[in-house]
Structure formats: C-alpha cells, structure tokens
Q: What sequence folds into this?
C-alpha cells in the first residue's frame, strides 16, 4: 500500500505527535518557574553562574542527543528513540523532590536534556515525515506551537502550585503524571513514520546518501545558509536561557510574586507557542528568510525592553513582544534545514542543526551567569539583546531563501550540491 503524505491524510498519527510534543513542552515548562527559585530560596545558592549550571548541563546534553538522536532514528526508526526519551525521564521528578543539594538538580537536568533531545527531535521528525514537502512549514509550526504552549502552561501550572503548596515537592507531582502518561501514549499508540521519509526519498529525482561526517560538515559550515541557520538557532537560545534562569530571579527581586512570574513567563511561552500556528504557514506562503531575520530583531528588542521597564503589566507586554519574535524565527529555522536536507539524511541534518541550536542553552547560560555575577542582572539582559541583533545581521547577510518554489538556495529535492562557496 502506497504511503500518502499530508497532514490531513495522516491526521490521526499527526494528532498523536502533537499530543507528544505538548507533553514534552509541559515537562520542560514544569522547571521554568520553580527550579531557579529552588536554587536561591531552598538551597541558598547566590551565584547566578552556579544556578545556571542546571541549564548548562541540560543544554550540552540535549545538544549531543539531538545530534545522535537524528542519526539513530535513520537506522532504528523514530518510535524506539521516542520511547527511550520518555523512559529516561521517569527518574526526574524523584530527583527534584528528594534532591539533598543543588548538584542533584543539575544531575536531574542531564536526564531532562536526554528526554528533550530524543523526544522532541523524534516528534518534529515524525511530523515532517508525515506532512511532506508542501506542508513542511505548517507541520513545523504546529509542532513548535503545541510544544511551546506546553512550556507556557507547565510554567504557569507549577507557579500556581508552588504559590499554594511551596516550591517542593508539590509541583513535581504534576511533572511525574505528565511523564508517565506520555510514555504510555508512545508505547501504545504512536506508529513508526520512517517509511514516509524513505518513500519521499524514493520519489526524488536523485538520491543523495551522505555519511554522518559529511552531513555534520555540510550542516555546520559547508553551506552558508545552513551555517546562518545554525548560528541564529544557537544565539536565539540565549533568550530562552535568560527566561529560564534570570526572569524568575530578576522579577521576584523587583517585587513580583512566584505566581506573577509564572504568568509573565507563561505569556512569553504562550505567545511564542500560539503564534507558531500562523508563522509556520507564513513561512510556506512568503518564504523563510524574512521571518527569521525579523524574528531575531523583534525578540532582541523585547529582551532589551524588559531590562528598562518596571511593573507587572509592562513586563507582560515585553514578554509578549519577545514571544512574537521567537514565533517568527523558531519554526522557520527548522524549516530552512528541512528544505536544504535530502530526505535520506534530513533527520541527521536536523539533528546537527538542533545540536548547535540547543548548545546555545549552555553557551547562553554561561555568558548570562558570568555577566550577571560581574555586572548585574540588567547587564545580562542587554548582553543577550546585543547578541540577538548581531546574529540577526549575520543571518541577513548569509542566509539565502530556501522555499522550494521561489528560493535561491539549491533545492534538496534535486540531489544537487547545496554548498555555496
């Protein structure tokens, strides 16, 4: 029986993959509001660089698992890697509940990095497999919308729970329930989608089977557009690291409650998540390059404004602006890589991009921690905004349009080289 690509044609499995990525978002969102406050208020950690260590461990581990998860999924399939990601997550709530010191929290985030690197990677790859080339941007937009809506709701829910019952252990009972339910869905209902990618490859005019090292080189520096995407993806994670580490500490130090911080962080993630329902399709309608560049500057502007306004409602507004920028650039960068990669190595190419992107969590956390300890939290906000503006400039100079209909970048469907010297 021939496999048919399309979101509507595969709506049952596509919906299950949306549920999966929503659960992935809830899992990371459950730590967005509570964990930095645990470091300061429960474990007595004063250095932002040390508090940021849990994001450093998360970022480097997730980056590595993104890289190899994509490679493994080409060999073993998407579903086994997805299940492995949820199995690894099972101990996380127990570690967060019973941690005797801050370094146990850092260890828990190593497991969170494995979970996110495997589970989210497989979910987005599965949606791209099912959707086909003509709906790739829409598929990625839906994936990121549901994922980051989950992040926003996870931050908000745990903020409400923490305000009512304390920072520990109540918020992590919610986390445990999410992980168990997601694992059961993956085992019982999710089907393998690798055959859809293989069918797309078979239908191409020419095959382009590349070894792992060749894909790593091409997706990192051998192709100017993919280099522009990789550096932009890495730098935009500075914003997310800032929200994760610094927002709870900065906003509570300036008078907001834990529940109010949960709303601010939730607005950032919610706007980011919901707007991707539109921006993913926007990239299919007008191309990839404009949303990426605009998003880098809008998100950077939102971060900069956050450092120079004061008050609950102004911070909600700047969080929303930052979320708009992230919604424009985030799914579109993934789509750029999906355009440029041949179906036979697309998952590996996306893994390379996601490796560099999520390493930005770690690089950003280190820079934010060092900057804040030396010059103050406000300076860390300015530093992140400046990095976004600089990276947006690089993208505007190097990135070519990759839309398969009117792009100037060589199409991945032709099998022709895409390296631009």
A:
């Amino acid at each position: 029986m021939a496999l048919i690509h399309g979101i509507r044609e595969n709506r049952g499995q596509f919906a299950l993959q949306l549920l999966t990525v929503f659960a992935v978002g809830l899992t990371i969102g459950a730590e967005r509001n509570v964990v930095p406050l645990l470091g300061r208020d429960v474990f007595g950690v004063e250095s932002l660089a040390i508090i940021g260590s849990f994001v450093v461990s998360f970022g480097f581990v997730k980056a590595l698992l993104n890289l190899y998860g994509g490679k493994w999924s080409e060999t073993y399939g998407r579903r086994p890697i997805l299940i492995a990601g949820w199995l690894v997550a099972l101990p996380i709530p127990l570690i967060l509940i019973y941690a005797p010191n801050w370094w146990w929290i850092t260890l828990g985030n190593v497991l969170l990095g494995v979970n996110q690197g495997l589970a989210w990677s497989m979910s987005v790859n599965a949606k791209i497999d099912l959707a086909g080339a003509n709906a790739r941007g829409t598929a990625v937009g839906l994936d990121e919308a549901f994922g980051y809506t989950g992040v926003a709701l996870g931050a908000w829910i745990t903020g409400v729970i923490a305000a009512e019952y304390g920072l520990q252990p109540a918020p992590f009972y919610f986390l445990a329930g999410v992980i168990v339910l997601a694992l059961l869905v993956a085992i019982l209902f999710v089907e393998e989608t690798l055959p859809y990618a293989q069918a797309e490859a078979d239908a191409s005019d020419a095959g382009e089977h590349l070894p792992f090292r060749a894909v790593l080189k091409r997706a990192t520096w051998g192709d100017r557009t993919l280099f522009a995407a990789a550096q932009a993806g890495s730098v935009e994670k500075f914003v997310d690291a800032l929200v994760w580490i610094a927002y709870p500490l900065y906003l509570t130090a300036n008078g907001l409650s834990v529940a109010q911080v949960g709303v601010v962080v939730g607005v950032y993630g919610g706007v980011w998540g919901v707007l991707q329902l539109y921006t993913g399709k926007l990239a299919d309608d007008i191309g990839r390059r404009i949303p990426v560049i605009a998003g880098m500057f809008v998100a950077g502007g939102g971060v900069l404004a956050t450092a120079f306004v004061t008050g609950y409602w102004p911070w909600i507004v700047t969080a929303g602006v930052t979320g708009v920028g992230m919604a424009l650039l985030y799914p579109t960068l993934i789509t750029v890589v999906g355009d440029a990669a041949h179906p036979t190595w697309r998952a590996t190419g996306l893994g390379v991009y996601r490796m560099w992107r999520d390493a930005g969590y770690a690089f950003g956390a280190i820079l934010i921690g060092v900057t804040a300890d030396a010059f103050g939290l406000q300076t860390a906000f300015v530093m992140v905004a400046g990095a976004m503006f600089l990276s947006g400039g690089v993208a505007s100079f190097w990135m070519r349009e990759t839309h398969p209909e009117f792009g100037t970048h060589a199409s991945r469907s032709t099998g022709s080289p895409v390296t631009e010297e």
Q: What stands out?
A: The two ends are 43 Å apart (CA to CA). The chain is about 80% helix and 0% strand. The chain has one domain: 11-414.
